[in-house]
Design a protein that fits this description.
Layout lengths: L8 H12 L2 H14 L1 H27 L6 H8 L2 H34 L3 H48 L6 H4 L14 H16 L5 H9 L3 H17 L2 H13 L12 H9 L2 H38 L5 H25 L3 H25 L5 H21 L5 H19 L9
Length: 432
C-alpha cells in the first residue's frame, strides 16, 4: 500500500504526475483548448497544479506526521470510526468514475489502432491495468509510473516538433484567433460561467482530499520528500500538458478537417494516424498507452486500499496482513468491474473525471480542511458538512438546476461544518 515508505522526492513527484496526467490531458483537454482557448486550459490544467501546491504547502506536513495509510485514517483519528467509514465509502464511490474515464480512453485508442469495437477495447484496457496493479501494488505503480512518464515526455515532444513542421509558422497558430481565445475568463452567459466555476471547484478543491495524493505523501521516505515531491508534481502537471495543447492547435491549423475529430476527443490521435509515419505512430501510441495505464493503476489502487484499510481492517482489527493483502487484491478486481460499468454508461472523458470529484468536494473537503486546521471542528459539524453538502448537491442534480449543483453544495458543506461545530462542540478531551 505504501511501497515501504521509501519514495524519494523524484518518485513522489513523477509518480503523482503520471497518475494525474492521463487521457484527459491528451484526448480530452486539448479539444477544449482548441475550441475555447486559455480559459479552458486554466480551468482544466492549472487548477490541478494549484491543488498539488496547496496540499504541499498546507496539508502534507500535518498529514505525514500522523503516520497513517489513508485519508480515511485521518477521520478516524480526528472524529470517530463511523465518520471514517462514511468518508471511505464516499471515496470508494467516487473513484470508479475517474478510472472509467481512463478505460474509455483506452477503448477509443484500441478502436483506432487495432480496429476492435469499443467494447472489446474497453475490456483489453481494463485487463492490462488490473494485471500489474493486482500483482505489484504501490511499488509496481511507482516504478512503472517513472518509466511511463519518460515515454510520455519523449513521445509528445517529438510529435510537437512534427506538428510545428506542418504549419508554415508557429505564429499562424494564434493568428486568426478571436480575442476571447486568450482570455482566462469564459464566454459570456450563465451556463458558461457555471461550467467554468464548477470545473475549477472540482479540479482544485475537489482534488485536495484525494487518496492518490496522500498515498504518495505517506509513501515518501521523509516529510521533506513528500512536500518537495508535491511541488515537483505541481510543476510537471502544469508544464507538460502545454505540449498536447499545442499539438492539437498545430494539427487543426495545418489540417482544419481534424476539428471534426474533436467530437470524439481524438484530434491528436487522428493527426498522428493520418499525417505521420509508422515509427511515429508507434511512439505516440506507446506514450499514450503509458499515460493512461499510469493514471488507471494509481486510481485503481487508491479505493482498493481504502476498502481494505478503512472498512475491512476497521471492522476486523485482528486480521492478518497476508489475509488483508488478499482482500485488497480482490478489491482491485471489484473496483475495476464497477469502473467498466460506468465506462459503458458514459463515454465523455472529461465529464467522467469532473463527476468523480464532485462528490468528494461537497462531502469531504470541509471535514478534512476544518478538521486539520480548526480546533473547534466537531463530530457533529463533520456530519452536518457530509450530509448537508451531499444532500444539496444531490437535490440540485436531480432537479437539474441551471447553475451547477457543486456551486451550491460546496459552500453549504463548509457553512454546515462551521455552524454544526459551533452549535454542538465535542466534549472536552474528545478532539485530537
Amino acid at each position: 500500500m505504501l511501497a515501504g515508505k521509501s519514495l524519494t522526492t523524484p518518485f513522489v513527484g513523477v509518480t503523482l504526475f503520471a497518475t494525474w496526467f492521463g487521457s484527459n490531458h491528451i484526448m480530452g483537454n486539448p479539444e477544449y483548448f482548441v475550441e475555447n482557448g486559455v480559459s479552458s486550459f486554466f480551468s482544466l490544467v492549472i487548477t490541478g497544479g494549484m491543488a498539488l501546491a496547496v496540499v504541499g504547502f498546507f496539508y502534507a506536513k500535518r498529514m505525514y506526521r500522523l503516520d497513517i495509510i489513508t485519508v480515511g485514517d485521518f477521520f478516524k483519528l480526528r472524529y470517530n470510526k463511523q465518520i471514517d467509514i462514511t468518508i471511505s465509502i464516499i471515496l470508494v464511490l467516487a473513484y470508479p468514475l475517474w478510472i472509467a474515464s481512463q478505460f474509455v480512453a483506452l477503448a477509443y485508442l484500441f478502436q483506432s489502432v487495432i480496429g476492435v469495437s469499443f467494447t472489446v477495447g474497453l475490456f483489453i484496457g481494463a485487463i492490462l491495468v488490473v494485471i500489474y496493479t493486482y500483482i505489484g501494488g504501490m511499488w509496481a505503480v511507482s516504478y512503472t509510473d517513472m518509466i511511463q512518464s519518460l515515454l510520455i515526455l519523449i513521445g509528445l515532444c517529438i510529435i510537437l516538433v512534427l506538428a510545428f513542421n506542418q504549419t508554415e509558422s508557429v505564429t499562424n497558430l494564434f493568428k486568426n484567433k478571436p480575442t476571447s481565445f486568450f482570455s482566462i475568463l469564459p464566454k459570456n452567459g450563465l451556463s458558461s460561467w457555471s461550467e467554468y466555476i464548477a470545473t475549477i471547484l472540482a479540479l482544485f478543491l475537489g482534488s485536495i482530499p484525494g487518496q492518490e495524493i496522500y498515498q504518495r505523501v505517506f509513501s515518501a521516505k521523509s516529510e521533506k520528500a513528500a512536500v518537495n515531491g508535491l511541488y515537483l508534481a505541481a510543476l510537471l502537471i502544469v508544464i507538460i500538458p502545454i505540449i498536447p495543447a499545442l499539438i492539437a492547435l498545430a494539427a487543426t491549423t495545418a489540417h482544419p478537417e481534424l476539428m471534426n475529430a474533436a467530437k470524439e476527443q481524438n484530434i491528436i490521435a487522428s493527426f498522428v494516424m493520418n499525417y505521420t509515419s509508422i515509427p511515429i505512430q508507434i511512439l505516440f501510441y506507446g506514450a499514450l498507452i503509458s499515460a493512461i495505464l499510469s493514471t488507471s493503476s494509481g486510481a485503481l489502487l487508491a479505493p482498493a486500499t481504502i476498502i481494505s484499510e478503512n472498512i475491512i481492517r476497521s471492522n476486523r482489527p485482528s486480521i492478518s496482513d497476508k489475509r488483508l493483502l488478499s482482500l485488497t487484491r480482490v478489491c482491485v478486481l471489484v473496483i475495476a468491474a464497477f469502473s467498466v460499468y460506468f465506462a459503458f454508461r458514459s463515454a465523455n472523458i472529461v465529464a467522467l473525471l469532473v463527476a468523480s470529484l464532485n462528490l468528494i468536494l461537497v462531502c469531504i473537503f470541509a471535514p478534512l480542511t476544518f478538521g486539520l486546521f480548526w480546533k473547534k471542528s466537531s463530530k457533529f459539524g463533520a456530519w452536518c458538512a457530509i450530509i448537508g453538502g451531499g444532500l444539496v448537491w444531490f437535490t440540485c442534480t436531480i432537479i437539474k438546476t441551471t447553475i451547477d449543483p457543486i456551486i451550491f453544495g460546496t459552500p453549504v458543506s463548509c457553512l454546515a461544518m462551521v455552524l454544526g461545530s459551533l452549535g454542538k462542540p465535542d466534549r472536552k478531551g474528545m478532539t485530537s
